[in-house]
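To the wet lab folks,

You asked to see what we're planning to order before we commit. Fair enough. Below is the target structure as tokens, and below that is the sequence we designed to fit it. If anything looks off to you, flag it before the synthesis order goes out.
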């Protein structure tokens, strides 16, 4: 979907910067880079970074002809498998986007200007392979403002520590619970401590912890479908658990990055690992289309929006710089109400993590399948 440029004077996306939040785009495809649209978004909207995933690349390859010429060239080499072809396409796009974001990266003191590329989701539960793959992608892309995406599984968190300890930027993805988030922060801090112990410079490393939102509320809705009674408690949780969880995670962020352990690292130049709000498009027509953006504006955070959500927020988003830090007691009451209904949030979020890994793996396989189809078609046409 194309994004609509707008003047700075009335642009809520621009206002996010004043509130301390960085807008990132959850999309990446070739024409966005080559036709000047990404440059316009950076200049006019104050866009600060980009995220990508296998689903985004699959749609770009399947639904456009942007990659046909490059695919023909790669197929013509005759010695590349589907994974190698995907990587050639993805790396070229990531490099192009990273180069356009380089001025943002430098002007922000390496706080922003990042582009994410995901480790194969099939490795989510394998620490050693994830760590090796993160290192390989880092060397392959050769851009300081790359963030390698690693899922926040138990094995992934160990890989996060090892990858941060090697001086590589990490976007920890698929977080759904405060407990998962706390484990990720510990992995990040431990990685920084490992890096410092080896004589590395922690000021050169950045990380975000990506907290997925709309999927939480959908899962709660599904679970509530089997419950009866307690109407008051139900009204307190419908469409409210994700935002409540995010607000409480942000409160934990403030506490976790105020400890003596953190201050010791900060004195050496380390950067706090910011929370990134992901899965911010609304999946229910009854909700405002900027629901997961308006409510979560706050300092030292990132919101990565798909194009449709970004367009909506640009047009009628509301920027309250205190939104994220407000109504904390109400957020706690929301989670208490969920528990009173006999619903385990930890069970829901655990299932969401497993399901997220499965869906990303399926998307990755679908992507490779799409490339295989294109490869066969192009090879046949060249005969």
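Sequence we intend to order:
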């Amino acid at each position: 979907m194309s994004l609509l440029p707008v003047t700075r004077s009335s642009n809520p996306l621009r206002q996010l910067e004043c509130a301390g939040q960085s807008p990132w785009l959850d999309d990446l495809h070739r024409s966005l880079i080559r036709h000047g649209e990404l440059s316009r978004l950076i200049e006019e909207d104050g866009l600060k970074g980009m995220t990508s995933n296998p689903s985004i690349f699959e749609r770009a390859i399947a639904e456009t002809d942007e990659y046909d010429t490059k695919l023909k060239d790669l197929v013509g080499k005759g010695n590349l498998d589907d994974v190698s072809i995907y990587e050639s396409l993805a790396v070229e796009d990531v490099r192009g986007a990273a180069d356009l974001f380089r001025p943002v990266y430098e002007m922000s003191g390496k706080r922003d200007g990042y582009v994410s590329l995901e480790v194969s989701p099939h490795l989510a539960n394998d620490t050693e392979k994830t760590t090796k793959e993160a290192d390989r992608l880092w060397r392959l892309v050769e851009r300081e403002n790359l963030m390698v995406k690693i899922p926040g599984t138990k094995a992934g968190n160990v890989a996060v520590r090892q990858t941060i300890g090697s001086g590589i930027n990490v976007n920890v993805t698929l977080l759904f619970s405060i407990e998962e988030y706390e484990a990720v922060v510990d992995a990040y801090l431990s990685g920084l401590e490992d890096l410092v112990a080896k004589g590395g410079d922690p000021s050169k490393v950045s990380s975000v912890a990506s907290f997925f939102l709309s999927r939480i509320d959908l899962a709660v809705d599904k679970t509530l479908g089997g419950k009866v009674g307690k109407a008051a408690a139900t009204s307190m949780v419908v469409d409210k658990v994700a935002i409540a969880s995010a607000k409480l995670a942000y409160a934990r962020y403030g506490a976790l990055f105020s400890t003596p352990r953190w201050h010791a690292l900060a004195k050496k130049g380390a950067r706090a690992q910011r929370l990134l709000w992901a899965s911010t498009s609304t999946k229910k027509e009854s909700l405002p289309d900027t629901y997961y953006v308006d409510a979560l504006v706050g300092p030292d955070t990132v919101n990565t929006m798909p194009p449709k959500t970004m367009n909506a927020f640009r047009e009628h988003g509301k920027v309250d710089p205190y939104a994220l830090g407000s109504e904390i007691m109400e957020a706690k009451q929301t989670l208490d109400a969920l528990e009173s209904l006999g619903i385990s949030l930890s069970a829901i979020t655990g299932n969401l993590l497993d399901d997220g890994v499965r869906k990303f793996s399926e998307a990755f396989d679908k992507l490779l399948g799409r490339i295989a189809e294109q490869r066969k078609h192009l090879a046949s046409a060249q005969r």
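Structural context that might help your review: Residues 345-381 form the longest helix (37 residues). The beta strands are 21-26, 49-51, 114-118, 146-151, 170-175, 207-212, 274-278, 301-305.

Thanks,
Computational group
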